[in-house]
Each structure stands twice: as C-alpha cells, then as structure tokens.
C-alpha cells in the first residue's frame, strides 16, 4: 500500500488554540482523509511545542510549573481537535521522552557531521518570538509582532554552519526536489537565500526549561531547533520502523510566518546528517479577523469551541475552509459566518438534498441526463486536480458549482409536476439527481465527514422513514 505522511506545525503551548491553528489542522485532516479514500496508508502528525523562556514565564504568572502549564495547554488542543473530528495518527509533545531521545540522536549526528561549532554571540532577543532579531527587523526599536523591545543578550553558543548547505538547498528548490508551494512562497524562500542568511545558533545559555545540549551541560537546545525535529522524532528517528516506512514526509503544512525555519533551516539540518528532505512544503497565508490581526487586547480571537457550539463541528469545518484560498492572505469576517452557513449549507446542500430525497422514494432508478453527466465529469476532473494540489477552497467551489447546477436542473425540469402526471421522464430526472447527490457526498466526505455519513445512511434507506434528513437546519 502506498504511504502518505502529512504534518501540521506543532503549536506553541502558550495559550489555547484559536481558529488560526484550526485552519492549518483542518487542511491536514481533509487532505489526510482524501488520501485514505484514495487507498493510501496515511500517517497524520500534529502536536504541541512546549519548551522555552516564554512558557516558563507564562507558567510562573499562573503559579504553575512549566510541566503543569503545558500539560493543561496541550489537553486543550486535544479537546478541540477531538470535537472538530480531527483524525490524527499521533499527537507529539516536545516534553515527551520519545521526542527528547530522538533530539539527542539528531544532535549527536549533527555534531559528528562537523556542522556545529562554538562561538560568541551578541544580539537582540525577543522572548515572545523565542528568537534573535536583527536591527532591521525592528519598528521604532520594538519587535513588530509583540510591540516590545527585545533583550540585549551576549552569550557563548553552539552554531549551525548553514552557509555550507545553502547552495544545495537552493538547487533542490529550483529543481523541485524540495517542492515549495504556492510559487509565491517558493520565490520568497529563494529571496531569503539570495539576500544571504547568517549561520544560526542552536543553543542558549542558562535556559532552564528546555532540552539540555548533550555536548555541553551549560547549554540548552534552542526551542525552535528541537521543535523542528518533531517530524522525525514522532517516527522513532533514526531506526524505528515508522521512520523507515514514512520518512520523508510527503507534505509539511505550515504558516507563512515560519517559512524560513521550514524551507531553509530544517532542510539544511537534514542535509547535514544525510537524511532525505521532505517532498513538499505547503505554506498557507496569514489571516486577519474583521481586518485586524488576531489579538486578545482587541477581543477578536475566535475560539473554535465557540464556533462549534453555534454551528456544529462539520459546519464549522466548512466555514473555516471556505473563507479564502489557503495560498493567499485573507480576512475572516465573523458576522459573515451565519450568512454563509444559511446560503451554502442550509439553502444550498441541505435544501438540495431535502428537495430530491422528498421526491425520490427509491434510489433504484434508471437513466441519466447527458448534460448533467457531462457537467459532472467536468467537476470530477476539476475536483480531483484541486484536491491533489491541496487547493481545498477551490475544490469546495467546484462542488458548489455542481450543487447550483442540480438546483437549476430541478427548477428547469420541475420533477414534482411530472410525478403528479406520471410522466415517463420522471425516473431519469430523479435518477440523475440521486446520482448527483451520491457524488456530492463522496466529494464532501473529507470536509464534513459526519454530515455526509448521515446523508449516505439516509440515502441507503430511502423510502423507509417518514422523517426528513434535515442536514443543515437554518439559523
């Protein structure tokens, strides 16, 4: 059986998950489900990044140990993913003993390869970002993400010799041995390389909450460095059966804000220890809510559980994935959720299914309309292409154009009148509509699995119950 290994970024465990985290994780879940329907053996990894100064500070603010704090935060992620019906294969935590063991093995390989050296470093460190910033990155002396001045730090660290691997990374990106999509993000990565990137520190001094650097007890492995290794430690790197079976990853899904870490630093680390690179990295855009970046102070952080409570898990999945193409930056307007729910789900799919299944008392019918069949084939081809290119928004748009076509077909043929007059064309029309609904169910299974399962069961027992399907009640 052909394998497929897909990952999300692991989310920094400083707070509860918001819809930005859900957006990326839902993309991975839908792609995972689609690959399973294609008959592939899928391993889907997500998890939480649980070390670093910022987490230690947050824990202290709440009078908790860092471990207590991340135990609580990671449980929130698992809760939300469970309610959203995220069907992951493994949930890795960077505080897991398995992760630490794998990190030690990875670091030893890096050290033995000669890619690590010791040097003194002075720089500006943002605790919020958990990384060093250059002067040019600052706005009026402040970190642009956290709007506070970074700390001036001088310490002796271990560094990774990135320069040695940049030409090979550039070559692999150009030849698409390492595929980066969309093209705009690929060009962004090549731009980073052309502009020049410094060697990076892989350790910090005197950071208590982290994984110790095995070659020097006074150093701690930089939080984002060991976090990147989760993609292999979850598979029992380097000798585990899962690692041998599933690595290299077929697809890393990440956000635009961590592009450089995944498209330059991570491949360089793998090259240094002669391990295969991931096949593709898909970088989704960033989004705002009502035109502004999500922020607790602005009160515009949307809790996935609040969305689910209002619309249910499957509708929430659809509402998040149908906002804008993942390849672009976009804006979510919270007040549009109800309008979109009623327009697309209640009045769209829900109404179509209800109209057809009320008229058709049996799914055992004959004949199909040639025009609808031709349109179906066009949509099937479009859907397959979009799904295989991880364009979920565009795949949904294709499905809904077919929903609209079937609605128009009903309005044109008026099968309810033909039924009353016992017209011989009725069976062909109803069978065409049943055929259409069956395929809509197949297309939407990865997106709305529970609702499509309900519709499929209803269709299989058509005519045996007087109850309506009522798939998406109006709100």
UniProtKB/TrEMBL annotation:
The residues covered by the Methionyl/Leucyl tRNA synthetase domain are: 5-145, 153-357
Q: Which InterPro entries match?
A: Anticodon_Met, M/V/L/I-tRNA-synth_anticd-bd, Met-tRNA_synth_2, Methionyl/Leucyl_tRNA_Synth, MetRS_core, Rossmann-like_a/b/a_fold, tRNAsynth_Ia_anticodon-bd
For the keyword ATP-binding, the answer is yes
Which EC class does it fall in? ligase
What are the Methionyl/Valyl/Leucyl/Isoleucyl-tRNA synthetase anticodon-binding domain coordinates in residue numbering?
369-454
MF terms from GO for this chain are: ATP binding; methionine-tRNA ligase activity
- Taxon lineage: Bacteria, Candidatus Wolfeibacteriota
Q: Which GO terms describe its biological process?
A: methionyl-tRNA aminoacylation
Q: What is its EC number?
A: 6.1.1.10
Instruction: Supply the SUPFAM superfamilies for this chain.
Output: Anticodon-binding domain of a subclass of class I aminoacyl-tRNA synthetases, Nucleotidylyl transferase
Q: Which protein, by its recorded name, is this?
A: methionine--tRNA ligase
Homology family: Belongs to the class-I aminoacyl-tRNA synthetase family.
């Amino acid at each position: 059986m052909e394998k497929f290994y897909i990952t999300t970024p692991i989310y920094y465990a400083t707070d509860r998950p918001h819809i930005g985290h859900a957006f990326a994780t839902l993309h991975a879940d839908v792609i995972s489900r689609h690959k399973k329907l294609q008959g592939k053996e899928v391993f889907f990894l997500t998890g939480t990044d649980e070390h670093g100064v910022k987490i230690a500070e947050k824990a202290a603010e709440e009078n908790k140990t860092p471990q207590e704090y991340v135990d609580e935060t990671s449980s929130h992620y698992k809760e939300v993913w469970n309610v959203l019906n995220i069907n992951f294969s493994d949930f890795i935590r960077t505080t897991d003993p398995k992760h630490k063991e794998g990190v030690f093995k990875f670091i030893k390989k890096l050290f033995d390869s000669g890619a690590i050296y010791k040097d003194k470093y002075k720089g500006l460190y943002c605790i919020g970002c958990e990384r060093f910033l250059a002067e040019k990155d600052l706005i009026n002396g402040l970190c642009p993400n956290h709007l506070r001045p970074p700390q001036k730090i001088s310490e002796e660290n271990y560094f990774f010799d990135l320069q040695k691997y940049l030409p090979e990374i550039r070559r692999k990106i150009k030849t698409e041995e390492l595929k980066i999509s969309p093209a705009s993000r690929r060009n962004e990565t090549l731009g980073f390389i052309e502009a020049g990137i410094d060697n990076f520190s892989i350790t910090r001094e005197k950071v208590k909450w982290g994984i110790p650097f095995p070659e020097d007890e006074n150093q701690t492995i930089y939080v984002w460095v060991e976090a990147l290794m989760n993609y292999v430690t979850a598979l029992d790197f380097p000798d585990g059966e899962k690692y041998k079976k599933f690595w290299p990853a077929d697809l890393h899904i990440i956000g635009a804000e961590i592009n450089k870490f995944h498209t330059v630093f991570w491949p360089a680390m793998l090259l240094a220890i002669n391990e295969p690179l991931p096949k593709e990295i898909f970088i989704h855009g960033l989004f705002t809510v009502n035109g502004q970046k999500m922020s607790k102070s602005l009160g515009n952080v949307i809790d996935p559980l609040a969305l689910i409570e209002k619309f249910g898990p499957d509708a929430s999945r659809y509402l998040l994935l149908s906002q804008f193409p993942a390849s672009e930056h976009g804006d979510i307007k919270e007040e549009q959720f109800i309008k979109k729910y009623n327009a697309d789900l209640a009045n769209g799919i829900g109404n179509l299914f209800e109209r057809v299944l009320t008229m058709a008392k049996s799914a055992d019918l004959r004949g199909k309309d040639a025009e609808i069949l031709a349109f179906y084939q066009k949509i099937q081809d479009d859907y397959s292409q979009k799904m295989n290119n991880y364009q979920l928004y565009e795949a949904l748009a294709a499905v809904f154009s077919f929903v609209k076509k079937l609605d128009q077909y009903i309005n044109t043929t008026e099968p309810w009148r033909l039924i009353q007059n016992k017209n011989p064309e009725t069976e062909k029309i109803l069978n065409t509509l049943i055929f259409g609904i069956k395929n809509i169910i197949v297309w939407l299974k990865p997106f709305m699995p529970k609702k499509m399962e309900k519709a499929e069961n209803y269709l299989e027992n058509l005519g045996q119950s007087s109850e309506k399907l009522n798939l998406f009640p109006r709100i």
